[in-house]
Design a protein that fits this description.
Number of strands: 0
Structural class: mainly alpha
Number of domains: 1
Number of helices: 7
Distance between the termini: 36 Å
Helix content: over 70%
Shape: elongated
Length: 186
């Protein structure tokens, strides 16, 4: 684990961070400009299921009724692409945190991150992939209903959102800390 965490702490650079940010933006753009408009048009105005808030097992099956065969086909591709996006975003976040830690030059924080905290975004990414796999299973078996999988998807979504809130709070905390240190050094 030390080698992996040091990749993001010691091996970070502005270029790597920007490259992963660029890839993340490409994924988000593909969702916003291609997948979501097609799915929305094919379902009579519904957004993709895994963008629904809150996402419950009941919402999944309520919305699937409105999915045409074309919407299901496009949504399957959406889910496939969405299995790669979370890892890309998690890599960006980990490199960004590493950049912030590098700038902060606070050994205590670097040690905490080096013990695995810097890998937290990958927990959210893994939960997102599990959510997508569950949704893929649901749509592949539709119109047969697999409620146990739908409830698992609901649980993965809740856990993922919890981890993502933690990611956001850590990111904001690091940015505030680095901002304060920057002002102090000037």
């Amino acid at each position: 684990m030390h080698a992996l965490t040091s990749t993001f702490i010691d091996g970070t650079s502005g270029r790597k961070t920007l490259a992963w940010l660029f890839l993340s933006v490409l994924f988000i753009s593909s969702f916003a400009l291609y997948f979501v408009p097609i799915i929305t048009a094919e379902t009579g105005g519904l957004r993709p299921i895994d963008t629904q808030v809150p996402l419950t097992a009941e919402v999944i099956y309520r919305d699937l009724v409105n999915y045409s065969p074309e919407a299901l086909r496009v949504y399957a591709w959406f889910l496939l692409v969405d299995c790669f996006y979370p890892a890309t975003l998690a890599t960006f976040i980990a490199y960004f945190w590493g950049l912030m830690l590098r700038y902060a030059k606070k050994p205590t924080l670097t040690n905490i991150a080096g013990k695995g905290l810097i890998l937290l975004p990958f927990a959210g990414a893994l939960l997102d992939v599990f959510e997508n796999i569950g949704l893929a299973r649901i749509i592949s078996q539709y119109p047969e209903e697999v409620w146990n999988v739908a409830y698992l998807v609901q649980g993965f979504r809740t856990a993922k959102l919890t981890v993502q809130v933690g990611d956001i709070l850590i990111t904001l905390g690091l940015m505030v800390m680095v901002g304060i240190l920057w002002f102090r050094r000037r």
